[in-house]
Design brief:
globular, 132 residues, alpha+beta, 7 strands
Length: 132
């Protein structure tokens, strides 16, 4: 077999056998709306650059997400108590992290899950401001 055929066979097999949802801890419930697990940043990230070049602060309403465009504003709602906050996506999470969103501590406190470490949330896209 030549290289072209082997490459085609590899990619065809991979896509047929790959799981349909790679991020199994969250799901899309309707257009631009997802549910899943949220966490928050450790203090060690204060002062570091985010993926879009901003300096991270746990006192701002920002978050990390792996599939929305940087600069997108999202409404995050705690599904346990219905509290909501609007945050800006300005960073990316580790590719191995299967959580839906990683919030600043200020956002986690406003959603009342800071003491628990993790929370079940729904996110909805509010607006796209910047582009990646």
């Amino acid at each position: 077999m030549n290289l072209k055929k082997l490459t085609f066979l590899f990619f065809t097999t991979f896509f047929l056998l790959a799981p349909p949802i790679l991020f199994s801890q969250y799901k899309k419930i309707k257009k631009n709306t997802w549910t899943g697990t949220a966490s928050y940043y450790s203090n060690k990230f204060n002062g570091r650059k985010t993926a879009n070049g901003e300096i991270f602060s746990n006192d701002k309403l920002t978050c990390a997400n792996n599939f929305l465009k940087l600069g997108t504003y999202i409404k995050v709602t705690n599904t346990k108590n219905n509290l909501s906050v609007v945050v800006k996506v300005n960073d990316r999470m580790n590719k191995k992290n299967k959580r839906l969103v990683d919030l600043s501590q200020r956002a986690a406190k406003e959603l009342k899950f800071f003491k628990h470490g993790l929370g079940q949330v729904k996110i909805e896209v509010v607006t796209h401001q910047d582009t990646e």
